[in-house]
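Can you make up a polypeptide sequence alongside its tokenized fold?
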Amino acid sequence: MTNVSYHISNLLEKMTSTDKDFRFMATNDLMMELQKDSIKLDEDSEKKVVKMLLKLLEDKNGEVQNLAVKCLGPLVSKVKEYQVETIVDTLCTNMLSDKEQLRDISSIGLKTVISELPPPSTGSTMTANVCKKITAQLTGAIGKQEDVSVQLEALDILSDILSRLGGTLYSFHSSILNCLLPQLTSPRLAVRKRAIIALGHLVLTCNGNIFAELMEHLLAELKRNSSTSTTRTYIQCIAGISRQAGHRIGDYLEKMIPLIVQYCNVEDDELREYCFQAFESFVRRCPKEISSHLPSVTGLCLKYITYDPNYNYDNEEEDEEEMMETENGEDEEQESDDEYSDDDDISWKVRRSAAKCLEAIVSTRHDLLQDFYKTLSPALISRFKEREENVKADIFCAYISLLKQTLPIQSWLHASDEANKEDIPLAMLQNQVPNIIKALHKQLKEKSVKSRQGCFTLLTELANVLPGCLADHIPALVPGIVFSLTDKSSSSNMKIDTLSFLNVILCNHSKDVFHPHVKALLPPVVTCIGDPFYKITSEALLVTQQLVKVIRPLDVPCTFDAKPYVRDLFCATLKRLKAADIDQEVKERAISCMGQIVCNLGDYLSSDLQPTLKIFLERLKNEITRLTTVKALTLIASSPLKIDLRPILAEGFPILASFLRKNQRALKLSTLTALDILIKNYSDSLKPAMIECVLIELPDLISENDMHVSQVAITFLTTLAKVYPSSLSKISGTVLSELFQLVYSPLMQGGALSAIVDFFQALVVTKTVNMSYTELMKQLTSPIYTSSPGGVSVSLHKQAYHSVAKCVAALSSVCPKEALGVVNQFIQDVKNPKSSAAVKMLAFLSLAEIGRTTNLSAQKELKAVILEAFASPSEEVKSAASYALGNISVGNLKEYLPFMLQEIGGQPKRQYLLLHSLKEVISSSPADSLKPYVEDIWALLFKHCECTEEGTRNVVAECLGRLTVVNPSQLLPRLKKQLSSGSPYARSTVVTAIKFTISDQPQPIDPLLKGCIGDFLKTLQDPDLNVRRVALAMFNSAAHNKPSLIRDQLSTVLPHLYNETKIRRELIREMLTFIMLARLSTLCPNAVLQRLERLVEPLRATCSTKVKAGSVKQEFEKQDELKRSAMRAVAALLTIPDIDKSPVMAEFSSQIRANPEMSSLFESIQKDSTSLSTTELMDLS
């Protein structure tokens, strides 16, 4: 006998003891053993353990019974299948026992076993067999009407099995349905409720026939309406099915909704409640199918949201009662309460379910926003007076959803949609703000905390959606704010919500609207700073920081006298700033708040200022608070009050310098910003040694590994060069060498490049030793001039030449005398046949950057030199020469542009390069200077728009598009006219030109383009494939950069777009279809779920296709890639919630696992997907 078997035998022996403590301890020890992964039981031990545990389920001691049940969970995975079946058989038999305790414990046991069964995806057959055994017994137990408690337990367990393992019970689905349907008419409501839950889980995995049978039965019973009680149950059942499997119920809505609408008018409040719950579920789960019924559903919601038959909302009396703050008013209310007893009134449930349904409609139909503001918004506002707290909370939720839908999209997309109908809902909301305030402001002083919290949550959302909209209503809101902050019955959350609202309105409203109310607002806020609950303190400090900006704004002139309030604000914040044993968030906010006080009110602090700054110095030394302190010091240093920081600079500067070597990026960036401000505003208080300790740290910060940190460090150096030029001599060679390395980086562009350019300009002006124009130019260009003569330098990326050229031009612009010699030198370098391609490339790019801002007409041979370079064997040199001609022309249009146009007309071989030069001219020249030449350019471009070479046509199209933006009213109609051209090449050029007129920023061309873009989109139906392709590219560009242009065209354009997705064997691109499916699985999983049965077959066909023997290698590769793409789509489908409940998908998954080839392919795809998410599978740019 092994050690394990011996130990188990001992435990089993103790379990037979007459002492309950022995039995308990032995069962507990057995559970510990079973939970070990390493334990292996032999057959005999298995049998004995199972037998003993089943016996202990009938133990007289409840604690022993409970432990025995817990043991069943880990035991399931440790014993053979037939033992599990023995356990299940016994438990099922016990469930039918007369003993209630045994029934209960066996029910728990079955649930434990079900939860521990291995999922079917592991390929285990045990799960399916055990489930079938349980199900057969459960359906029998449910059919027995005698004992309701047995039925309830059996229904509960059946729901568990169906929710977790429903797919394994295909063969039982029909019998389960036949067993559950009669329970919907059970005399016990609890039985009906659990039957509905079980049906909800069944519909997730059952096949189409069973689902159809269920739905037909429910529809027939709804029509029959044998009793109101059963009708209620059927409507609840439909709502439950919709919540669980809404993607399947859509096809039946046409028949269902008229019936449910009809039942809304039956005088039964419970029935109405269930009707609205069903509507809510339909709205959320079947948005497309319910669209045509939304008006009638919305109308019912609006009707029943006011349904309160036992209460009289007479507005006039109500207003009178509110005005009469007398004892009499209270008496009347008392009488009213006696007269209308609310004990039996459940009409509030109807109102609540109607409000929830409205919230579902609002949150799913952004497209109906304008209609909502016409109908729903006034109706909801009028119901803010609702007397029932729960209903009022849901009405507030519905209105908050409406506000969230109205919230403008803060993005480039919204910026490009300005002056569009998107703003109409905002304007409508603005007009309704007075009504909202009228309905809410008195409620802010109600006793009900829940109502007040709802009011503040709604008002906070309103202030976020429409900043500044409450400016005229501050006097009405302040008493409510003060009341909630001072009322003793206010909960902590109430105070936090109130402070949060106050913070929002202080941030996004004009400062002067608060000035009359500072006296009332400030004392309760200051009291909250001293609150013992840290969250209230933290929120109060945020509000205080905003209040400081309100009472003494530094950005606008202000007559408000802040002096009387400074002492209270300062003392309350100082107390929190000094405290060491407080919450981290409070520490940080106390530092930020005090920073704001010193910044805005520092001149009022007199003798308190220096001790406060010393505290900042202490906080700067603390690792936890140093980042927040750096930001606070930055704020103080930038204050126009010129706060005296000298007492802390000597000690603080070295500390700040040390932060630059810390491995905390945010700290480095904030410290550099702080140092920059200190150098600008306190240069006379800084000593050379203080600046040196910072300069030592800079070389390590300038690196291509972190461009943003490099950019901020270089900006600091630029400030140093301008404010403290004497310190530049101390700049070590390492700083400069790091800067030059950065210039040569392929990542250099944008902000970092601009920062380097500014620094070089500031540096050369200081005339520091070894940093003159000549020295800097030499160091900048030396890697290129020392490169191998055979070609472009292998050590430098193409981007580096552009960066160096920009630096050369920047230096030349501040040293014009020396620049002349450099320009001549570049021209000589280009003419010199011995110059390498790298040198010529740099020379042309530098001439381009210099020529853009400087007139180079004095260089008479420049034109010839550039044209000669167009014949260079190096593509890089040709491209650089083309770029140079375009940019030099920008600096001198009068001389160069006519020359360029003449060359384009007369030099067909150089045409492509010359057109690129022209593109640079059009892109970079101011519109006014271009206008005299527009006609000539336009005529020339149209001569070349039918060129057979696609590359040339694309450049022509870009030139036409950018030129059209210069004078849209005149040129856009001309482009439109060209759509009727007989040449497909000309049409494709015109459509591509339109693509280049669309940008993500607002432009004068937008309204004109919107008016005629429909004509250009008609080319989606063009007979020529290439024209349709470029039309699609133009449509794609509009959709991503300026959706407002095409929104009104979607109804006509989309059918043609979908037409292009049809499979045409001659243009087959199946792979794209799979990529689109993977993307759709992420974007709209519910819609994909609805069409799953149609999708699986084509995927199965592709994954199981075999290439004919003897096919060429390319055919095998193509098919392999196609399979991989299809399998990626399968992997994406499997991420959809509830997909595992689909029988079709479960079967396909089993097929994939069973086939070795498909299985290994699927595993490799899953590994790939960990590094590449499905959202990256489709390039949307």
Observations:
- Residues 316-341, 411-422, 788-794, 1172-1181 have pLDDT under 50 and may be disordered.
- Residues 228-249 form the longest helix (22 residues).
